[in-house]
Amino acid sequence: MLGLYGNYDVVVCGGGTSGVTAAVASARTGAKTLLIERVGQLGGQMNFSGPPGFSFAHLFNGRQEQIIAGFAEETHKRLLDEGHALPHMLVEHRSHYTFSYVDPDWWGLLVYKICREEGVELMLHSLVTEVIREGDVVKGVICEHPGGRSAVLAKVVIDCTGEGEVCYQAGAECETAPIQILEPSTVAFTADGVDWDKVVTYIHEHIDDFIFNQIYNPYSKWTDEKIRQRVMEIDDILEIGEVMGYLGFKKRATWTGEWHNKSGVGFFLMPKEGRILAHFQHSSQEDLCDCSQVRGITQVEVECRRQNMMAWRFFKKYVPGFENAYITRTCPEARIRETRRVMGDYVLKFEDIRDARKFDDVIGKSAFPTGAKHAVNGRALALEHMAVPKDMGSNDIPYRVLVVKGLENILVAGKAVSADRASHQRFLQQTIVTGQAAGVAAALCARDGITPRQLEENVSELQEILISQGAILYGTH
Ligand SMILES: Cc1cc2nc3c(=O)[nH]c(=O)nc-3n(C[C@H](O)[C@H](O)[C@H](O)COP(=O)(O)OP(=O)(O)OC[C@H]3O[C@@H](n4cnc5c(N)ncnc54)[C@H](O)[C@@H]3O)c2cc1C
To answer: Transmembrane segments in this chain: where (predicted)?
Structure first.
């Protein structure tokens, strides 16, 4: 039987980075806010199916100007004060690939505290399965959860499910790349007990066997050779950030059948409680799967675990420093890189990012390159159609990418926002930027009795509130 769970100003569906941020921003703007999440843990790919290799990256542009703050900076600062984050790292040899490490597990704990502080109501273990619509107007959602099914009514719904699931159910126009080129998905795992001195020594002695993010060189114009020279001087593995290569071992193990050759060999560095863990998020990758469909996601879950076992045996057998290492965590579910993008009133384009375009309805910024795509060919990244924002700057993200085309009273935030394939806004910092803006916008619409589309006519209050909540909209390249 279908009961009425409640009636809210703003209902946020999905409690990943975008959803948590949207719910907090909405509540801070004065709206009665409900956050619905499928599992018991908030944080999504940040810490539940994560952690990511780097959280957060690119809060700074190539000129080392901070371009993203808001909820990302606030949580980084709070965790830094408590010893669960490291100061922003802006080292130039990583081609301005800046890292602002936060401990994902602590981020996942902190956000419950913030939700409590701000009066965000939580509805956990609840799967949004249907959208309540009157014509093109969204009125709420239906959830399945322990105890049955409920209707939840809302003045504005925000879809933060990552895959645009709610918009899709509401009939929104969505784009998905052909399955042959969809980015692969991954089950990540983390290991401790690594002898980092040995790892660094091996890198120094076999420098040509490694790849150091040279694809991002347009940011700094450093040559591969210069980066290698710099890496030769580094003793602290954290400064390298990501270890990718072991090309000699990989070649041998691929030949003997000890490496699956679905991805490159490597790992990210994850600082934690004064230690450094190795985080493997490229050791399994399954392609030709559409993870918005049950058959696709099931295949990924099974195949990635097979690849991970193979990868771990490889590391233990071949890689100096891993002799006594052990796995501390395998992610409970696959992480999905790419499925739907929901089409909005504006579609963010490759040229907008390449040209570092500015928009009147700016709600935040991004300095992440366009077009970097994972491919299942052993290289990890496909570089076609790639560009960094010009002059080492950043592009604006316009409000209209959140406003779902053809529907009223619904916004999308997080990795499914309206963009062409090259401009997919899937990185954590981008999901926080769009989440914060969607939360404030939804709350304003609920307060004023207008639709998100009507808000497009005048976004000045939205922008003022975002700035008062710490977001950066102006004053940088
Ligand atoms: C292997 C991998 C590595 C990555 N590494 C990095 C990295 O190092 N740095 C980086 O910045 N980014 C990285 N990313 C990208 C980034 O982690 C994600 O794109 C980002 O976390 C997505 O945030 P989101 O809020 O849009 O969605 P998610 O974090 O996916 O959150 C969606 C939430 O919605 C919930 N949900 C889904 N459907 C429903 C429903 N019907 N009802 C209720 N709840 C629902 C889910 O349970 C989840 O909690 C990586 C991605 C992958 C796949």
So the answer is: none
pLDDT band at 141 (very low <50, low <70, confident <90, very high): very high
Residue 446 pLDDT exceeds 60: yes
Degrees to nearest 5, angle at CA 349 with 344 and 354: 150
Q: What is the mean pLDDT of residues 60-77?
A: 95
Q: Read off the pLDDT of residues 332-362 as tens digits, 9 standing for 90 and up.
A: 999 999 999 999 999 999 999 999 999 999 9
% of the chain beyond a pLDDT of 70: 96
Q: Are residues 23 and 165 in the same domain?
A: yes
User: What is the average per-residue pLDDT within 247-264?
Assistant: 93
The answer to whether residue 474 is domain-embedded is no
Helices marked H in 146-293: 165-169, 196-205, 224-233, 237-240, 247-256
Residue with the nearest Cα to atom 17 of ligand 1? 45
Q: 3-state DSSP call for residue 22?
A: helix
CA of 14 to the centre of ligand 1 (A): 9
* CB atoms inside a 10 Å sphere around CB 205: 10
User: How buried is residue 191: exposed, middle or buried, by Cβ count under 10 Å (0-12/13-18/19+)?
Assistant: buried
Q: Six-digit token pair at 422?
A: 């090259």
Q: Are residues 194 and 323 in the same domain?
A: yes
Cα 187 to ligand 1 centre (Å): 13
CA 315, distance to chain mean position in Å, is 27
Residue nearest to atom 20 of ligand 1 (CA): 428
User: What pLDDT digit, counting tens, does each position of 402-445 carry?
Assistant: 999 999 999 999 999 999 999 999 999 999 999 999 999 999 99
Which of 280, 301, 328 terminates a domain? The answer is: 328
Residue ranges around ligand 1 (CB below 6 Å) = 13-19, 36-39, 44-46, 50, 52-55, 57, 127-128, 160-162, 165, 186, 188, 281, 335-337, 414-415, 426-428, 431
Let me know whether 378 and 454 are in one domain. Answer: yes
Q: Which domain holds residue 444?
A: 1-176+337-467
The pLDDT of residue 219 = 66
Residue 316 CB coordination number (10 Å) = 14
Q: Is residue 91 located within the same domain as residue 209?
A: no
> In this structure, are 12 and 31 located in the same domain?
yes
Distances (CA, A) of 339 to 54, 174, 314, 454: 21, 10, 31, 29
Say what the pLDDT of residue 94 is. 74
Residues 109-147 as b or e (16 or more Cβ within 10 Å = b): bbbbebbeeeebebbeebbbebbbbeeeebbbbbbebee
The whole-number average pLDDT for the span 126-143 is: 98
Q: What is the CATH number of the domain that holds 460?
A: 3.50.50.60
Confidence grade of residue 248 (pLDDT, cut at 50, 70, 90): very high
Residue 271 has a CB neighbour count (10 Å cut-off) of 17
